[in-house]
Amino acid sequence: MNAALRDYHLLWRMALSIRHARTNTILFGFAVFAALCVGALVQLEEREPLHTASAAVRVALASLLGGWMVYFVPGAVKLNTPFTARMVPRMRRRLMGLTTLVWAIATASATLMSFDTRMVPAFVFLGTGSWIAAYGLGLSGHRAAGAVQCALVFPVVFNSSLPAGLFDSLAGLAVATLLMLALGAFALQAMFMNGGEKHYAACEARALQSERLSAAGQFRERKERKFGAALYLRVLRRDCRARDSGRLLGHLMGAQNHWVYRAIMLGRVVAVAACALLGMRLFASVDTKDMAAATGWIFASALLLVPLFDSERRNVRLKDTAAEQALFRLAPAMPGAAPAFNRKVDGVLLRGALLEWAMLAGTVLILSAMSGASASSMFMQACFCCLTLPLVGASLRNHAHRAGLLGWRLFLGAAASIGTSVAAGVALERALGLPLTAGAALASIVIALAVVAGGFARSRTAPFAFPAGRLA
Amino acid sequence: MNIPIVRLSSISKHFGRSTVLDGLDWQVMPGQVIGLLGRNGAGKSTLLECLLGLRETDGGSVTIYGEDVNALSDATRARIGYVPQKSDLFEWMTPRQMLDYVKALYPRWNDAKVDALLARWGFDGGMQDKPISKLSGGEQQRLSIIRALGPDPELLILDEPVSALDPVGRRDFLRELIDGVIERGTTVVFSTHILSDLERVALDIAFLKDGRITLQGQLDELLEGARRVTGPGALLDGVALAGEVRRHRSLDGTVSVVTQNGAALGAVGTQAGVRVETLSLEDLFIEVTQ
Amino acid sequence: MTTHSAQLFSIATGSPEPIYRQLVEQVRRLLAAGQMAPGDGLPSVREVAQALALNPMTVSKAYSLLEMEGLLTRRRGMGMIVADRPGPASSSAERAELLRPTLERAALEARQLELDPDTVLSLFTHILKEQA
CA-CA distance, B125 to B123, in Å (whole number)? Predict the structure, then answer.
């Protein structure tokens, strides 16, 4: 018994310290901070010290639990390397035991803490247990993890739509608990594989996952699908035969960022939306249809956030392909002097950005039309699209000096541009009676032209854009 | 006609507070095959990048074929081949696609030679359909070399081109270099750590140390002239030898001096207790770059 | 009149002796050992360069040096061939010069061992008589 507890203690400390040496300090600090914040809010609202204290303690414990889960589970998965899994079976057994123990304690604590609140304890019990299991499954790199996590979202978020009293009966609760335990066992087995090919495959999948979470890895090439790949290759062959250095430069940005793939992705989005809307038109009530028509634009507008990620992706790509850019500098097909070279690079980047923006705007309008929006609603939609136009100029930088993510500067710039456009729209409305959105769109177009012109002017005097980031 | 193809005049390059190149002068004559040697981190890659204009220098000028490196004409760039240290360029394309892609950027491309090299160096059938990222390091390097040789360059710059190749691969590369490149009078500059390859193929050597080219000359002359004179401090201290490169005093008082000019040793070398040895290229490398 | 192939030669990298000198010494030794007779053809510069993966200029330098010493001659259409052993080229003074590097090495060692010239000379004479 003692040996097991010692092992558990050791493994716990090891798993926690994988990402940070002082995990516990961070977690305790965060718990105290959260408790203070929530306590202050509760005190302001209810002015009952007992309530405040209990709320604060609950928040502290919950954030501690959550934090420990977030640090421990990935750490435990990492500790089970293929070698230790096979050669040190005791360690694997202990890891599994520790994880199960931690899982049980976390679920039990969460359930206990929820007893005096508005949350239904049964839901908390089932929810915590299954979410931790799904989290572990996701960390192990299992392919079904995404599907499981999606599936779990619906009962937990939309729990009001579940039949009331489903879990009041013992039978219902027992069945649900068994399902949760089954999920837990499945996740445990996926997290702590006993060596073998599947284990190596899972390790690779994990490495790819964590690489994708980093800033640069987010835009790595993934396995290309057959149809898109064939189409992209045809475009590549055509561009090579045409010997157009501008188009060839576009290929520098990689396969996944090419407009071929963007077109395919948007096509899929439109197809899925078309099916959903068709289903709604045939099966849903009039109220739902009206709601869809009126608010569908909100969801479509979410697509307009994509240009933010587009420009970041381009920036990262430019930073990563420094070696390929060296080849472009030495290629006879490109101009030899810095101003002409930079102009060509900027032209290619701008064309790519405009193309992507146009495809997005077109998709948004198609989606609006499909969801049965009125003409005025579509016009407003088009104006919203114009608000994101200035982002196409975000790729026109002094690439030699600055490469990589723009980060908060991009968001600030986008916010400033949108704010200015809206202010201008308000002013125009007052002065000329122009609708607000039209005025804002007009202002955005002007801002976009200014940004692009400024970018081109800057690149005339800047050093060679390629290799990017060398003077940083 | 002996005007240098590449001329670097007092170039300097700083990275933050560290100086990598410090008032460096260098010239490359047409038809020369020069090996660039230096310790790891001495700045060989930086020097080659500054040579090609891929990096701005903080001072001095670089000209290739008489043109300033920041404004090379198309014709000049069509005569330059470059094999960078990173060999997995365009890693999402297959070898065939990558070669077609680069071919589209050059006015002249020797299809026959490229195909022959692909066949001879093991790029046949299935290999041509794998993306470059899936090839091994050696295969990527071989492909990188083929890509640089495609446009039949007159100036070939190689940055550690064979670091990942096994001995057979390196021998094949040397043979191709001799047959297809040197015989045509191409000027070759390459930096490598593999001294045996340099001894076979390079006629000139340049050592990069402390941001300057501290020693350069014909390899044969350097080997024939270099000597290490070891003897008691009493005899050698205070005796300055012509062409001295390095002097080192060990703890027990023995002094060892490395000199370039073995012929001028004269009386010093014949004293009893003084040992004079010839040096191999590896010994010379270690002594010069310490 | 055999034409030798490039397999005749071998070089070692990593030695203090430059490669062209290694080739020159090899030719000299082969001639001295009688493995190459006057009139024999030598492999072309290109063949040797390809076989040993050497710069053709190095091979060419070795051949030129041997030609200057009179050990090889260039015959039109046949490349380099071993020269007939002409009298003046191998006068005893010139042959003695060939022995100089070995003797210099021996002299250096003798100095390091702190032996006087007379002892060394009598030892050398003794050895020569033994081998005669």
Answer: 7
